[in-house]
Amino acid sequence: MKLDRLLAITMILINQRKVQAQELADMFDVSVRTIYRDIDSLNLAGIPIVTYQGQNGGIGLIDGFRMDKNVLTRDELGAITIALKSLSTSYQDAHASAVLEKLKALSNEQQTLESIFIDFSPWGGNPVLKEKVTMLKKAIESHLCMQFFYSNSSGKESNREVEPHTIVLKGQSWYLYAFCLQKEQFRLFKIARMKELNVLKKKFVRKEIQIDDSPWDKEWYHPERTTELTLSFNSSDLALMEEMFGVENVIKGEKDQLLVTIDMPEDEGMYRFLFSLMDRIEVMKPEHVRRKLKNLLQKMNDLYKEKG
């Protein structure tokens, strides 16, 4: 990822007076243009990097500038190391591994590095998902369009061609935030629903998006399309419901009944979610959601009813 590369370039320039842009491009398997974009990003971050012309030219830190190699505290080194180790559970990146080894060498507190580990991979492992994320990452960095078949939440399959921009981990799932050429707008694609991925030779110019504003949230949450649900459950399931909906959202009802009120987009995903909890919750409001769940239960009962 770009952050890994920026950190590695910074460390190289700290230890070397000058380095050729092509050398960095070969080292990280990117274009020279990408390296110069990285240099611009580092300059914006306050690291004064300049380019020297001539036969012995190259990229280096400005004369007279020195950076304290101990600029990162032990805790900061540990935090970065934990982040890189956690990311490695979901995608393969040789550069991130190289940076990780350097950071581990700077920190001799093995106990600190092992105090927390975030595993983004699903239980049982999913090598196919890891391969998809790795492929998408390479396409994003190379500014190459992608084609794949995608199944939406209703199971409808479509052939998509997109300009991949950002890989997103949201909740417990990985998504691709990409500009869909068919729809001519940004869409959020669940990576697990993508198949027959193909990186095309067609280049694209990355569009300006504000990552810090999490624009993909707008793809899922539309206040005008949400429904307020009131759910009831028994106190025996309190721990599960507090974990799922938040302690602050659980209130006491009559007797040992507990209630939670949440807003959810009303789509097939909402009904599947509610159906997965039907042995633990009762939907109190709204009435039209109760009716639809009753119909779904009746269909299931008919499906499993003994014949003859």
UniProtKB/TrEMBL annotation:
GO molecular function: DNA-binding transcription factor activity
Positions of transmembrane segments: none
Gene3D superfamilies registered for this protein in UniProt: Winged helix-like DNA-binding domain superfamily/Winged helix DNA-binding domain
The keyword Metal-binding is annotated on this UniProt entry: no
Occurrences of domain HTH deoR-type (ranges): 2-57
UniProt entry keywords in alphabetical sequence: Transcription, Transcription regulation
Designated name of the protein: YafY family transcriptional regulator
Classification lineage: Bacteria, Bacillati, Bacillota, Bacilli, Bacillales
